[in-house]
Amino acid sequence: MGSSASQGRASTTAARFRKPSWRDPRLLVGLLLVLVSVVGVVLLVATANRSEPYYAAAGDLAVGQRITREDLTTVDAHLQDASERYLPASQELQENAVVTQRVAQGELVPATSLGTADELDRTPVGIKLETPVPAQAGPGSHVDVWVAQPKPTGRGFQEPRKLIPGAEIARVDTTDTALGGTGGVTVHVLVRQAQVGPLVDALGNDAKVTLVLDVTGSGS
Length: 220
Fold this sequence. Notes:
- The chain is α+β, with helices and mostly antiparallel strands.
- The protein is built from 3 helices and 9 strands; from the N terminus they run ααββββββββαβ.
- The chain has helices at residues 2-16, 25-48, 193-204, and strands spanning 52-57, 72-77, 98-99, 114-115, 123-129, 142-148, 161-176, 182-191, 208-213.
- Strands 5-8-7-6-9 form a 5-stranded antiparallel beta sheet, covered by helices on one side.
């Protein structure tokens, strides 16, 4: 009796420490779990590091500019959570799309920077200057537009007044003379519809227009 019990315990112990066979279901399940875990990690890393093509500006894009595919280039970028904020290269451009927000050369194109003409809240107006462009003034910076109307006598100008505060510069055009000098500078500023009339009236009546750099960057 005692001998049988001892043999039973020995048999149980031997079975417990017996090397598992490759056909053992527990071994197969374990290997499958390891394989699934490895594949999951690989897919997660691949997804996290995946880059997608996005539109970037081939040159400076000014507000109001009609945009075409030739104005853009594509770059691969890994944006993760910010991907919805920029325009993917797989998306077709809207017909007659215009720039509604300035984009500098080489920058990714924000999805909100392109729209239609009727979505523009500002219009570029060209101002030909007799005085130099303010230092550090360029596309994207803001200037105050000062206007001095001619005196009724036709000699000199009246007291200048600030017509438009914080107008954003869309672009600056420089005209060269035949001798290689600078013939003049036209600064295109973005103004709201209500400001277009007074500015055009001042320019049409030979008012003296001066741009003063808005260091506060308050905008219009």
